[in-house]
Amino acid sequence: MDPADEPAAALIAALAARDETVAAAESLTAGLLCATLARVPGASAALRGGLVVYATELKTTLAGVDAGLLAEHGAVHPEVAAQLAEGARDRCGATWGLGLTGVAGPSAQDGAEPGTVHVGLAGPGTRTVRTLALSGDRDLIRTESVRVAFALLGEHLV
Questions:
Q1: How far is 42 from 145, CA to CA, in rounded Å?
Q2: Alpha helices of the chain — where are they, by DSSP H?
Q3: Regarding beta strands 126-133 and 96-102, do their DSSP bridges make them parallel or antiparallel, or are they unpaired?
Q4: Is 106 helix (H, G, I), strand (E, B) or coil?
């Protein structure tokens, strides 16, 4: 069993028990979060869908991130993660939205070093961002970003 399956299964169960749903707008993880949730049998009870917004302009056109924010700060910024989360929630009609942006490496992007990740969460009465400074290769950074996103949402479901 993949190590991510257990937290994903717990998250799907918690959401389903509350009759709530989740959607994601993913940049650096490029769909990994949604794919990990979708491995769980019965995921359709809680997973609404997601947006892969790897290209910067798609963050605006698909997820509704403010173009001025992107022009001023670039794609790797805490407010971008928050707006990605809000966009996923709104566009997919979910209770909760997760937004992930950052640098998986190997090179810096928008002045941010590899391992810089921002995870946004939007939901009922909630709008928060967790900023990470991760180390490791691309796969590890992306996998850890998904784990942190699951943990962040899980903290708001207790």
A1: 23
A2: 5-17, 32-38, 56-61, 67-73, 78-92, 138-155
A3: unpaired
A4: coil
Radius of gyration of the chain measured on its C-alpha atoms: 14
Note the pLDDT tens digit of each residue in 39-82.
999 999 999 999 999 999 999 999 999 999 999 999 999 999 99
Kindly state the tokens that stand for 48.
């609404």
What tokens does 157 get?
Answer: 């479901």
Local structure of residue 40 (DSSP, 8 states): S
* Alpha-carbon gap, residue 30 to 51, rounded angstroms: 8
What letter represents residue 109's amino acid? Answer: Q
Please give the Cα distance from 98 to 59 (Å, whole number): 13
Residue 10 and residue 157 in contact, taking contact as beta carbons nearer than 8 Å: no
Residue 17 has pLDDT above 80, yes or no: yes
Rounded CA gap, 108 and 3, in Å?
A: 28
Alpha-carbon distance of 127 to 97, in angstroms, equals 9
Rounded Cα gap, residues 9 and 13, in angstroms: 6
d(CA 64, CA 51): 11
